[in-house]
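User: For my dataset I need records formatted as: sequence, then structure tokens, nothing else. Please produce one.
Assistant:
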Amino acid sequence: MFRFQCLGLPFEPRSEVLEAIAEAMASRLTEHHGNVTLAVLDDGRMRELNREYRQIDSTTDVLSFHYFEDFSECPPDETVGEIVFSESRLVSQAEEYGHTAEVEFYRLTVHGILHILGFDHETDEEYEEMWDIEGSVLASLSAKFGIAWGESVEITR
């Protein structure tokens, strides 16, 4: 099961929610463990990373980087990936969806973990598969913690 290290967040995420995200992913997907770093960056740095790694010259809400294809072989204390978030996008998307920046952070963490695990949403089939898992995890967090996800929360392509 993944463990998280948070850097530069403008709020203190609830450890029990992050643990529940990791547990929900582990219960639905193949075995995985290791550390995932979660960091909030400004739009300038997000744009640089998006340009460098995706050849898209604009900012984005979240980027995921994985260091292994098969996590089952990784030592439990190994850093297996990073998820970086745009601080301004956390705030603007939270306002758009009608929830807090912290709730948007949890939503994008689920999304980012799926990318680390190899999921994508470039085709309709990939989108449906990824959204089914993401929606299921978000529903479990809502039931467990009473998190309201707001309106129109979906994977953007």
